[in-house]
Design a protein that fits this description.
Helix content: 25-40%
Number of strands: 8
Shape: globular
Strand content: 35-45%
Largest sheet: 4 strands, antiparallel
Number of helices: 5
Radius of gyration: 17 Å
Length: about 190
């Protein structure tokens, strides 16, 4: 069953549900963004976006409590897990390309995506390739000038929470972090 997330008397807002990496990863990704900017130029959106692993974007009635409750219930049985960043790669999308950091063993992130897709999109078959974006939607003439191997980076961290952000006109603001279980059930 898909949730009815639109109500006549409430404005529709955008929520982003994601995994926020540690400060060390954010700093490295910011440095990579600067390198790409110096090489081919990046727009403000690419330069300003903080490193994250996207799980879901939701356009819904402006109801933070509902979104928090829905995300909390959707991931209630999910335990903390390790995330390993292992080098860089790229996607192409016709006339644009995306440079990103690869996630090794992405299955737990894919499970989170599937759980959230079920409640927010009514979809049981959706899938993603989990990644940390360095630069996205680069025009192909710029994209071809970038060698992903230059951005070889390895780092591991524990994902122990899911972050919920809300678009506030010019940037996202943190509204809640949903903790994951420490241990699997016995």
């Amino acid at each position: 069953m898909q949730l009815n997330m639109f109500e006549e008397d409430r404005a529709v807002v955008r929520y982003a549900i994601l995994i926020s990496p540690p400060a060390a990863v954010k700093k490295v990704v910011a440095g990579f963004k600067q390198q790409v900017h110096e090489a081919v130029g990046l727009d403000d959106m690419n330069l300003r976006s903080l490193a994250h692993i996207s799980l879901c974007r939701v356009n819904a009635a402006d109801d933070d409590a509902f979104i928090i409750k829905t995300v909390t219930e959707a991931v209630a049985n999910m335990c903390c897990f390790d995330i390993e960043i292992n080098g860089a790669d790229s996607f192409t999308h016709g006339k644009t390309g995306t440079l990103y950091l690869r996630i090794e063993r992405p299955e737990p992130v894919q499970i989170l995506f599937a759980l959230l897709s079920r409640v927010f999109r009514g979809s049981r078959n959706a899938s993603i390739t989990p990644h940390l974006t360095i630069a996205r939607a680069l025009p192909v003439h710029k994209f071809r000038q970038i060698d992903p191997s230059v951005f070889d980076y390895r780092y591991a961290f524990v994902c122990d929470r899911i972050t919920i952000l809300k678009w506030a006109g010019e940037k996202y603001t943190l509204i809640h972090e949903v903790p994951l279980k420490n241990h699997p059930p016995a």
